[in-house]
Write a structure and sequence with these properties.
mainly alpha, about 0% strand
Length: about 100
Amino acid sequence: MNIEKLIDCLSVWMGVDTWHTGHPLDEERFYTALSRAFEEFGYGISDADFHEAMEAYIEKLGINLDENEYYQDEIDSMVSKADAIASYLRFTSGG
């Protein structure tokens, strides 16, 4: 997995300061980012890859994840959501 490309796909969502707030516009950006990632890599992106990409993006912003449990919880939540969406798409698309 090319994590830098995955980070680029997610940047449309995570590049906005409010990405983690659950605001409807952030949700829309999240789905757009997932769509970009699935177009690039297919539906088989692992939880570990999503997790790594999100952590790397946050660390590039200068946020120390070891000191900020909030962001770790948000990452875990969004990775679970991405996995559920990917699973649904894999099942319904036949691939």
